[in-house]
Amino acid sequence: MRKLVLQAWLVLFIVPASAQPFHTDKKINASSGDEIDIQSLKWLPGSHDFWVDEQGGIYVYNADDPAAKKLVLSKEQIKAAGQVTQTEDIVWSADRKKILVYTNSSRVWRANTKGDYWFFNLTNGKGRQIGKGLPASSLMFAKFSPDNKNIAYVSGHNLFTENIVTGKIAHLTHDGTDRIINGTFDWVYEEELSCRDGFRWSPDGKSIAYWRVDATRIRNHLMINNTDSLYPFVIPVEYPKAGEKPSLVKIGIVNIGTKKTIWLKIPGDPQNNYLPRMEWTGNKEIIALQLNRRQNESDLYLCDVVSGKASKIYTDKDEAWVEPVKPFVWDTPPWIMMDNKKSFLWTSEKDGWKHIYKVSRDGKDEQLLTPGNFDADPVAYDPVSENIYFMASPYDATQRYLYRLNVNNTDTIRVTPQIFDGTNTYYLSPDIRYATHINGSIKHDNTIRLITLPDHKKCYPSGEEAFTAPQLNFTLEKIRIKTADGIEMDGIMGKPRDFDARKKYPVCFYVYGEPASTTANDEPSFNDFISALIPEGYIGITLDNRGTPALKGRAWRKSIYRKIGVINSRDQAMAATEILKWPFIDTSRVAVHGWSGGGAMTLNLLFRYPDIYKTGVAISAVTDQHFYDNIYTERFMGLPDDNEEDYKQASPNTFAGNLRGNLLYIHGTGDDNVHYKNAEVLINALIKNGKTFQLMSYPNRTHSISEGEGTTEHLTATFIRFMREYCPPGGR
Length: 732
Prior knowledge:
By secondary structure, the chain is mostly beta strands. Among the domains are: 176-334, Methanol Dehydrogenase, Chain A; 474-726, 3-Layer(aba) Sandwich (Rossmann fold), CATH 3.40.50.1820. It contains 10 helices and 46 strands.
């Protein structure tokens, strides 16, 4: 139940060649006077070169000399090949003499992951479209074989190869449908396990390992489209809800010569386990991660690709849940291989903190590398220097900094210089020699630079660092609240620039409060809706309660297990109780707003604590925990058959009869994430209890409520008008 764009932490990681980096309108001036658009910088594989699309031509830069650039494919060559739409991404061959240009994309679930690909030989600049004969804009995750002889891709839920020289296309699978999915994933695997690209070339280019998802037993959730034709029609979405068994998923190894598939024999009931990650460790072996249904145990298996035999080498457990994958970090394994694949790095909370361990290949030897009472989030290992880079924030959980340690010396060293207080984000080059570094805080706007590692020296732009105040028409400050329960919560507060401490102001709380994201981040931004209100004379506040993924240790994060809606709403309400004691807060004008999980939090606060919260705007909320998908809900709530009462206590609908304040509920009827069913069941509960409220439905809009001309403007205007009417602005 994560909104499409939350104020989540930007994480540090090595960006794959096909990934899209941080977006900003800032540019770097190279010493030659040319401008390099940082938002378009994408690293080439295995190097610290990067490519940029400049006016339709593809240029390659080297971070050693950012003033120099090389044109590798001109706009005219692209046009001559027949490509008429904009270059959206590039996939490089291992020898960097060939590329695949991704274009004409369309959306699959959250992102535009299917489209057209054009093959170009950079030696002569000639190109052609691949996948001829297949439906337009249907190819997914095209990539070169390591031997540069073939290209593999998915189309129509089947896996294909195409010979680079002859252009001959070969089917590797034939059974693909909307329910038998080869080489990619269904909605819930993408949403909750960050799985998109569902196949991997073997190092020798002779085989492909791929996932096969069998969703034939998963029931459809039916959405109704009433507006796009004379008669309404239904849109089925394969969607396993809490308590429903997962899709059957297995991993196969297909030989591209014989077209025969060997299935890995990973033990366990496939309808009570997940297989979210795998990668090759050699031409004959794969490492795969299995997660049990309750998601409190993750097992690593080494698998022989000839026999399919799987041997368990390592297990990590937790009484609540384990987190082997990061939200929205797509297709990235939780391990980092090292020592020529004789060992690997693993992250566990087994001692109460998120720590990095070095584990031998057979799982028998384990070494703690980051001892101490702090959380470490590993992101990269440099095999040359043997440095491990990780993010941490030992002293302030609202911030993020880059640290490193050496495998042979576990003393941690802060890499981020002291001048860069706040939130720091890094996009490392694949060879771990350079990084794009973005820094911002509530005190200064985002700045961006290219740096060297491990010394963190700036390559460009030239000149001294210059910091400017955030481009906001209000001020931000940090707060820390200690509740009556003894819980210390970090927060961010926004005030109008003409704030007068002698007056009393309305307060609007922005909430999320679930395990997928934090909101009280030291960065130069605030919730968009509330940012529009603060200058009119509101106090805006966001707080991180227990259960959010703040770097405060396992106990903080896992305390919410089986208590979503209970412990997080209490923390928020108890913190609000302390804030309402401040002399400049008007206790009669207290509002709350959240989206998705934050929408559920908004309802819980209005219903459970009506003496505190007088007005609320809830958007796209999960109103009954049974209605959301099985992977997310069962991870944090357990299985409903085991603890039905917990599900009841976690659901806002249970307490709808307590509403006393002013509620505006908003939802898109085409939401395939948090279904509109949640809205209608909430409406019935409120009607049953005689509660009046306001409702705004957006026909056929998804979870982001962004589709359609004028939608964003209308949503914003609706929100602001409601707040002005029921929680009037201004100091009094």
